[in-house]
Design goal:
The chain is mainly alpha-helical and about 400 residues long. The protein contains 14 helices and no strands. Pfam families: MFS_1. This is Major Facilitator Superfamily protein.
């Protein structure tokens, strides 16, 4: 912990909500396509090869995200403008992200889907890196888990709202356009009240130092490394478990309306995650303990994965959605609070958070590589969910190695 957080004044709820709404918009742009639109569009274009094709488009997009988040975060840290460091990237990322969603709306060839999705991933990650950095920029440690829980709701509700827009507007074209409009509107409350301090002083520039800054030595900053590993493993388990949700409901559960089933599962899960994130975040701030919440969150998420592995019925899916929501809600609130407390570079919050967010993006690259052969030839969905639970649990246990946070 190198940040002089004692000098940060407590933040107010309206400002936090404006940050959460930007976060919501970015995740609508991500998860509306991922949950419903991309699987539908891929199946319509490719047909029987849908699993492999979806793995290709999501894997390439995640690879773009893995580079874009730390890169644009670092550029945000170095931005000098009268609007502050974060506002230009939130604005530009939202506008270009909406353009990418519009390209997807008109895509009729698979290569067009890949191009549009890569543009969305690159641009919206620019906005995401900047808005996430406002937490260590502005929020004192005593409010971190509560603030992280509120802001983290954007990720959870983004899945619900994105899937809801995709289903409510009917068809991939209207769904993509609805997500694009939502992304643009979500940035407006924060831009109206950002209070980002104007920065005009220019920093010395060295391309070599800029590139080298992305490497954070695990030996010099072990807490940062363990926080990265924790997030990576938990997100890898979650990505493996959720990649083929639509196909799981269709092929394993045999649901008559899998599109509607996806929305119901997401809605149930989102409500529970929202409650769990706020409660766990507030509780963690009150007791000033973080790691125990992450460990128990991992245990609960592993139980949810086992339910999906061995109870492949519609009631089983709903129960698993509730259990997963309890665990994942606690994880996203407290994990983000931990991360903000172990950032090594006060002048590079967005860059370091971008490096941390590789632990979000890399699982999206690896999940298709791991999940596709398991589903098709190595045991099907039962094996898939057992492996997902074990990986996620290993991530939660890794948090114990962090020494600088209780």
């Amino acid at each position: 912990m190198t940040t002089p957080v004692e000098r940060l004044a407590p933040v107010r709820l309206p400002w936090l909500l404006s940050v959460a709404i930007v976060n919501l918009g970015t995740y609508v742009a991500f998860f509306g396509p991922l949950a419903v639109l991309l699987p539908q569009q891929t199946e319509a274009i490719v047909g029987d090869g849908k699993e492999a094709a979806l793995a290709v488009v999501t894997g390439i997009g995640a690879a773009i995200s893995m580079v874009a988040n730390p890169l644009f975060g670092a550029l945000s840290d170095r931005t000098r403008s009268r609007f502050g460091r974060r506002v230009p990237w939130i604005t530009g990322g939202s506008v270009v992200g909406a353009l990418g969603l519009t390209i997807l709306a008109g895509a009729s060839e698979f290569w067009q889907v890949v191009v549009g999705w890569c543009l969305v991933q690159a641009s919206v990650n620019a906005s995401l890196a900047s808005i996430t950095a406002t937490l260590p920029d502005r929020v004192p440690v005593a409010q971190r888990a509560w603030a992280s829980g509120l802001v983290g709701l954007g990720q959870t509700l983004g899945i619900l709202v994105g899937a809801g827009l995709a289903i409510a507007f009917g068809g991939t074209r209207a769904g993509y356009l609805a997500c694009a409009v939502f992304l643009l509107l979500s940035a407006l409350p924060y831009l109206a009240r950002s209070r980002d301090e104007p920065v005009t002083e220019r920093l010395p520039w060295s391309a070599r130092d800029f590139v080298r800054s992305f490497w954070v030595s695990p030996s010099e900053h072990p807490d940062f490394a363990w926080a990265w590993l924790t997030r990576f493993l938990v997100n890898l388990g979650n990505a493996i478990a959720t990649l083929y949700l639509l196909y799981f409901l269709t092929d394993a559960v045999g649901l008559a309306d899998p599109d509607g089933g996806v929305f119901i599962v997401i809605a149930v899960n989102s409500v529970v995650v929202a409650i769990s994130a706020v409660v766990a975040g507030r509780w963690s701030d009150l007791v000033q303990r973080r790691k125990v919440f992450v460990v128990w969150a991992g245990v609960v998420m592993a139980v949810a994965a086992l339910l999906l592995a061995f109870w492949q019925t519609w009631p089983g899916v709903l129960v698993a959605a509730v259990v997963l929501g309890v665990g994942f809600g606690a994880f996203i609130a407290v994990d983000l609070a931990i991360v903000t407390e172990v950032l090594p570079d006060e002048a590079g919050f967005a860059k370091d958070l971008g490096v941390i967010n590789i632990a979000n993006a890399l699982p999206q690259v690896l999940a298709p590589v791991i999940a596709a052969p398991i589903v098709t030839v190595l045991g099907g969905y039962t094996t898939l969910y057992v492996i997902a639970g074990v990986i996620g649990l290993a991530g939660a246990v890794a948090v114990v190695r962090i020494r600088g946070v209780r």
